[in-house]
Design brief:
By secondary structure, the protein is mostly helical. The chain has four domains: about 110 residues; about 90 residues; about 160 residues, no CATH class; about 140 residues, no CATH class. The chain contains 26 helices and three strands. It has a three-stranded mixed beta sheet, with helices on one face. α3 packs antiparallel against α4 and α10 runs antiparallel to α11. It is globular.
């Protein structure tokens, strides 16, 4: 009897899951029909969805309405246009689209009533919030359109920091900038500012998810934010929205479950890869030659020559090689395998190699497939495989609600991480939040507290859970806050900063396997000019 009861309970629990999957597939099919201009099929698909559960998301409602207009279904289109303008995602500027002129919407007898509904929604919105967001977004975009320079980079950092503080204050004053509160345009402006705030992004992402669940924000924008959040955590993205482009060649940040990326993109109103490439005139993707079947139309024949030159040249520094890959390569598991092997053989920090190897599992690589890693890296993957694979499954299923930014107590941080309740291989991506926690507690933490914390943190370095470079920068952050000096010289805080016991800084750097300060400056584009004495240059620079 108990077994029958349990079976019935499991069946009841499974039904909603299957139903939701079925609804998602129907919605994707409706979007595909709309994109192919098959309005009859689109209308039928959305009609079926609407009969199951009334369509509430703005862009789904828009596609349904347009399809009915194109089919001259005046009865259904009238009902849908009223639902559309009552939707919190509707903007008056939408009325100015050519589509509405072609439909002669303003000439219809019910237009005055529609106009009144639109005005009522506009009057409810917070105009001071809208105006502030517009000004901030204008400044945000203006600096990014200027040619790159060190001064422009410095100004951009200052603008992002200022905009973040303003956005936080506005959200505290008026509430979260949903469609209903500020409209679609202003909501996008707020999203833009949050996207450019590395520290504010995690909090904003969590609240933006809630707004999307309530059909009060854009799924399309959420996907971009989710991918950027994944980057921040050192994990692969889901939708392929994060990339860099040089001329007509584009390189993507690692993408999990690449075979299904197009369906995921459609589900959040992002066009598929091929139309995207053609729309923006992208001729090629620079990739390693293992995945030609996926992007054969965009492959540059001499890409593998470039790879060969970079990989074999000992004159190229590790940093330059990594930069090349990060900027130009479409990182599939095999690409990450190459990077992991290269860092293991030639890198100063072996933990980077371990993290690149582990990231292969997060991109979908299974343990029973063929691997070509050095034995030490393979052992690291095996030791963490179950945890990594479980995280991959959670990531694809979007079932991972435990976020580090929800931890607000410095005292519990180490306990949480040591307890293994969160995938510890991503700790290297948590630098910003750890800094915030330390900053929040800076008045109450003692020197001994810091020493205990950094002793624990270095243990994470030794087992490959944290980067030496990040460790040294974080240590310098704290040391500078306490003593106004840099301890390792890893973080210089601008010119003219003092370094503690400068004659012995290289000895300290060597103790944690960092290159000499001179080498580090040269690798970061700060070489000693010809004819300058190194000690004199160092004093002048610092």
């Amino acid at each position: 009897m108990k077994r029958l009861y349990l079976a019935l309970m499991l069946l009841l629990c499974a039904v909603p899951l299957f139903a939701q999957d079925d609804l998602d597939e129907k919605r994707i099919a409706a979007i595909e029909s709309y994109m192919s201009n098959d309005f009859q099929k689109t209308c039928s698909a959305y009609s079926a969805l609407d009969s199951i559960e009334p369509i509430a998301y703005y862009y789904d409602l828009w596609r349904y309405y347009v399809s009915c207009e194109m089919l001259y279904d005046s009865v259904k289109s009238k009902d849908l246009v009223f639902r559309l303008v009552k939707n919190c995602g509707f903007e008056r500027r939408s009325i100015n689209q050519q589509f509405f002129d072609d439909c002669k919407l303003r000439e219809r007898p019910y237009w005055p009533q529609l106009d009144s509904i639109i005005s009522l929604a506009e009057n409810k919105r917070c105009q001071p919030f809208i105006d502030s967001l517009a000004k901030m977004a204008e400044i945000d975009q203006a600096i990014r359109k200027e040619p790159w320079s060190e001064e422009r980079s410095r100004q951009m950092s200052m603008i992002d920091s200022t905009n973040t503080a303003k956005l936080q204050a506005l959200v505290a004053q008026y509430g979260f900038p949903t469609w209903e509160l500020v409209g679609r345009d202003a909501s996008y402006n707020a999203w833009l500012i949050a996207q450019h705030s590395w520290s504010y992004l995690p909090w904003y992402y969590e609240h933006y998810k809630d707004a999307v669940k309530n059909n009060n924000a854009d799924r399309h924008s959420l996907a971009y934010m989710e991918d950027r959040y994944m980057m921040q955590q050192g994990r692969p993205q889901l939708y392929g929205t994060q990339y860099s482009q040089r001329d007509t060649v584009v390189g993507f940040y690692p993408i999990a479950d690449i075979k299904n990326v197009d369906r995921r993109r459609l589900s959040v109103d992002i066009e598929q890869m091929d139309p995207f490439f053609k729309k923006y005139g992208i001729d090629s993707i620079a990739i390693l030659p293992y995945y030609l079947d996926y992007v054969s139309n965009y492959y540059v024949n001499n890409t593998n020559m470039y790879i060969s030159n970079v990989a074999s040249s000992r004159d190229d520094t590790v940093i330059n090689v990594t930069y090349y890959f990060d900027e130009m390569i479409y990182p599939f598991p095999r690409d990450l395998e190459f990077l992991a092997t290269y860092w293991y053989k030639y890198g100063l920090d072996k933990s980077i190699a371990a993290n690149e190897a582990k990231k292969m599992v997060l991109c979908g690589k299974r343990l029973d497939e063929e691997w070509h890693l050095p034995q030490a890296l393979m052992d690291s993957v095996r030791a963490n495989y179950d945890e990594l694979r479980a995280d991959y499954e959670r990531m694809i299923a979007k079932d991972d609600d435990l976020m580090l930014n929800s931890i607000t107590s410095f005292d519990t941080l180490v306990k949480v991480l040591d307890g293994g309740s969160y995938p510890r291989y991503t700790i290297d991506a948590w630098n910003g939040h750890i800094k915030e926690l330390i900053s929040d507690k800076s008045e109450t933490l003692t020197k001994n507290d810091y020493e205990v914390f950094f002793e624990w943190l270095f243990k994470q370095v030794e087992v490959g859970n944290y980067h030496l470079f990040d460790y040294a920068e974080l240590y310098d952050e704290v040391y500078y806050r306490l003593y106004r000096k840099s301890y390792f010289g890893q973080k210089l805080f601008g010119r003219r900063v003092a370094i503690f016991d400068l004659p012995n800084v290289d000895q300290r750097r060597s103790s944690i396997h960092l290159p000499p300060l001179r080498t580090w400056l040269e690798l970061n584009g700060k070489p000693c000019p010809k004819g300058y004495d190194w000690d004199g240059y160092l004093k002048e620079y610092l």
